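re the bet — no i am not wrong, look at it urself. input seq straight from the record:
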Amino acid sequence: MFIGRERELSNLNKLYKSDKFEFAVIYGRRRVGKTALINEFIKGKPAICFTGVETNAKQNLENFSKCILEYASGINADTTFGSFQSALECVFEIASQKRIVLVIDEYPYVARASKSLASTLQLLIDKYKDTSKLFLILCGSSMSYMEDHVLAYKAPLYGRRTAQFKIQPFDFLEACEYFKKLSKEDQALAYGIMGGTPQYLLQINDNLSIEENVKNTYLNPTSSIYEEPNNLLKQEVREPAIYNAIITAIATGSSKMSEISSKVGEDTSVCATYIKNLIALGIVKKETPYGDDSARKTIYSIEDNMFRFWYRFVPENTSIIARGASDLAYKRIEPQLSNYMGAIFEDICKQYLWKLLLNEKCTINFTELGRWWGANPKTRKQEEIDIVGVADKNTALFAECKWTNEKVDVNVLEKLIERSELFPHKNKHYYVFAKTGFTKACEELAKNLGCVILIAYADMNY
């Protein structure tokens, strides 16, 4: 069953209906669903689909030739074109009379082995683009290669594409489509544990409890998830050991560059290079306090929830897991889940506010959302606000998110209001999100103020 990607499919179909030459670049992290999207798009359409493999140019050319000849003649022929240029010329010739889709999946594998392929494509696109009905799709999982060698200004194919799609992991609402049978609370936990990457979401069995799912995946040495972070890093980077150390440092609480460097035992300049690559891969994210771009206040956190959960809980329990003691490992993890879910719940609430804005149901028309932290001159303490959003110089939104089993009391709202005084905006709106709900005192204060919206997680309807 295919889930989501309605916007991407709609845009691809619009391009297809143009009936003129189109060239779309589709890229994104491994396991994010690029090939599934392409397969859904080409259903019922004439298409030649070729997937590159990590081999030499000769083998890829042979495989490409088979794909073309099978489409053209309907037989599995052993004939091989003399070059990629002659093979592609054949496809352009077929597309001169009718609409056809050519998919080159895992393009980086093919292009690395055949150094002239990009220039060949450039030559043929320039030659045929005004008369061809070809819909060319280049797809790749190597983010750096696709951005540097296909999309970049100095790349041979620059300026030839008519569209590009960077495929991102699903958001919370989309991810929930994979585990509809779970309770609403468990859906949040499942998202916090697996994130939004389709291949990881498929590992969740919504007929089982969260505990059983964690034991079957992260705490099971034979599961694909157990080895996934290491396997993915080995595919993407040259020195996975250092990357592993950096991710572990961030996942276990080191957020500043100096802290990460000290934990890893490498110079900050070295760590900065590795972290930049992890950010490009969508594994780590870089943050500064909302409204303050100061480099010295920059912190780093794990963006991908699967990586976040794995590096937070698996390494410290490796010896136990290896001995098959999944029950014991989970008993160690379970008391920490509520604290772990704090940042996840903030993200879910942030996504919810964006949904409200897009549905024109938000109290202010903000332009972006972020987190704020810094010194409070009055208390002389470091404080933070979970979510800040600004509409204009006079209007702003402030939100607090609490994933606890206790009802949120009035002091949480009072602190949020107090901290918001650090911002100059006169027209302030407040949101408080709670896993369990609110005390009567909190509800009464919110009602009296009139500019406060309290939202229990159970009532967060999209």
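see?? The chain has 21 helices and twelve strands. told u. also Residues 172-341 form a domain with the Arc Repressor Mutant, subunit A fold (CATH 1.10.10). so pay up
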